[in-house]
Design brief:
By secondary structure, this protein is α/β, with parallel strands linked by helices. The chain has 6 helices and 15 strands. α2 runs parallel beside α3. The site of S-adenosylmethionine has 20 residues, from α1 and α3.
Length: 277
């Protein structure tokens, strides 16, 4: 089920105005992202919930409607100050302004919500933070989102730097053409400890004559077993990575070895390209 088809309860249904930073305002304006999280929380939240990277607190508030107690953890002091205002009316939420990796939780979690996602989880700390917090998840506990699916295509792109294909880039200079089939290269389940280093062998079958000059990564987010969301401009926009240029014809096969560290930043991305005879 795709989130954009779901009924979205808009923020005005809350009985007060949310305060936000400009960044969190943009996050709250992404109705597809928010409605997907709302549906997943309504479906899964129970008992003790952690909301890790709670920002201005919206997911903590929704979790508090359906559970007994919510630990809302936010590292950024400015965001935490805003969350403090937003979360004040909710007596079953405790706000903790710390790095989630440093927090000692008194109670184990039935549900961990963690929304520090970015495309392929390269530039944000979703994976290192989850790897640290998972020890507090109860045996049958669950994580929202459940995981991600990473996909890749070979492209011809006009830019020579790594960038997200969001509205700003599209308007200013970014354009690309798809040159190959669409490959799912890995699936990550957030309930298990995750190896941070990724090496993927991408075997592309070329579908157009021209020049391959990059790869495009698309990340789909699995909120629950039957709810997939994204990409949107604010939620894992496609990532375009330039590679060494290669002339191709229809039916050619090329191999790209893609490696990066999840949480290691965009500078950790490396690519090698080979033509398959
Ligand atoms: C993408 S925002 C999501 C905000 C909010 N959960 C929402 O959905 O609107 C991620 C948040 O995680 C916070 N964050 C990043 N690293 C963190 C860490 N190690 N511990 C706690 N919070 C962290 C950021 O400051 C940011 O506010």
């Amino acid at each position: 089920m795709y989130a954009k088809k779901l009924f979205f309860r808009d923020l005005s249904s809350l009985k007060f105005r949310m305060r936000t930073t400009p960044y969190h305002f943009n996050l709250l304006s992404d109705k597809e992202r928010l409605s997907a999280f709302y549906e997943a929380i309504k479906d899964k939240a129970k008992g003790t919930v952690y909301d890790i990277g709670s920002g201005c607190g919206i997911l903590s508030i929704w979790a508090s409607f359906y559970s007994d107690f919510v630990y809302s953890v936010e590292i950024n002091p400015d965001s935490a100050k805003i969350a403090e205002h937003n979360l004040k009316p909710f007596k079953n939420i405790l706000l903790i302004n710390e790095d989630a990796r440093e927090v000692f939780f008194k109670d184990k979690a039935d549900i961990i919500i963690c929304e520090m996602l970015d495309t392929a989880l390269i530039d944000e700390e979703q994976v290192p933070v989850l790897n640290s917090v998972l020890k507090y998840l109860k045996k049958n506990g669950e994580v929202i989102p459940k995981g991600i699916i990473n996909c890749a295509e070979a492209v011809s792109m006009n830019s020579d730097h790594i960038h997200y294909n969001d509205g700003f880039e599209r308007m200013n200079y970014s354009s690309y053409e798809e040159m190959s089939n669409f490959i799912i290269y890995n699936k990550i389940n957030f309930s298990n400890n995750i190896k941070e280093d990724v090496e993927a062998i991408l075997n592309f079958k070329i579908s157009k004559k021209g020049i391959v000059s990059g790869i495009k990564i698309t990340t789909l987010t699995l909120l629950t077993d039957d709810l997939i969301c994204g990409p949107t401009d604010m939620f894992n926009p496609e990532l375009l990575i330039p590679i060494e240029k290669i002339n191709v014809d229809i039916g050619d096969k090329i191999k790209v070895i893609l490696s990066y560290k999840m949480g290691g930043g965009l500078n950790s991305i490396k690519t090698e390209i080979e033509r398959i005879p």
